[in-house]
Amino acid sequence: MTQSLTLRRPDDWHLHLRDGDMLRAVVPESARHFARAIIMPNLVPPVVTGAQAAAYRDRILAALPDGADFEPLMTLYLTEETDPADVAAAHAAGLVKAVKLYPAGATTNSASGVSDFDKVRPVLEHMAEIGLPLCMHGEVTDPSVDIFDREAVFIDRVLDPIRRATPGLRVVMEHITTSQGVDYAREGGDTLAATITTHHLVINRNHLLVGGIRPHYYCLPVAKREEHRLALRAAATSGDPSYFLGTDSAPHVDALKETGCGCAGCFTATNTMSILAEVFEQDGALDRLEAFTSLNGPAFYGLPVNAGSLTLTRGAPVAYPPKIHAGADTVTVFDPGFPLHWRVDP
Ligand code: NCD
Ligand code: ZN
Question: Is the pTM of this model over 0.85?
Fold first, then answer.
């Protein structure tokens, strides 16, 4: 008997599309399955102003394949110089759906991020008033804090104080990787939510480090212990509206991954829906996949769910290309390490 599963068309609430050749290579991979995505602004230079976000949105739309039905939801990169009036105008125009906070130095292209959180208080207060969500890369950058502890320490030192100081501010804890993140998001009420990536549901730090270092499993926040992966699995498959999909699909060319100091990022846009169906099936939660991929995100962002649907059919293992081409370079597609039986219907 063929098994099939039909969902509302999914959205990706955290996606890196880059620019130029890379943008043209990766945007079809997301547009094939996802109706909308929150687009990360960490280009070089970053997308800081409303005008830059409008220009980037135009480049994304121009890179879409003919007939694609995909809406980029733009974000602004928060700096200590961000002008609250520019943020408000970009939001009022319907252009920008969130503002992204990178602690300076936390991850790829985050050098212009925030060091002194007091400097961004006026912007955050304004965002709380207008209901514009803040997406937070939740890791401290204090060199004395162990990289595996940086998320938990961020919650105590930065996130909780900001939320207490700015009541009403809507916050998305992005790509959570720890049980502390899961617990904090669950208890945060309706102004707080968390995205969870595909890869953090699949790998723990052993996958990254045992038997040789696997650069394509290296991302930030770095994968943690197995107990944390299990907490993320339980959260994602629970149906709880506090959690929704943000793939954090973050392409880097292979030459920059497979090198002495490799870039952080897993590229999962191509096979995310097949992986998620397998994961939810393994956990007996296929009936809750739609909440995670297609319902909880729009509810938090105050957007309608998508009109279209996406159907997955179970059968013989699906083969995905191990790499895609970006200009003269290649990008490795995330390998979950187990067969994928769910194929997205064309
Ligand atoms: C992201 C990237 O490459 O832009 N990398 C990653 O490992 N996730 C940045 C980020 O989201 O931290
Ligand atoms: Zn990211």
Answer: yes
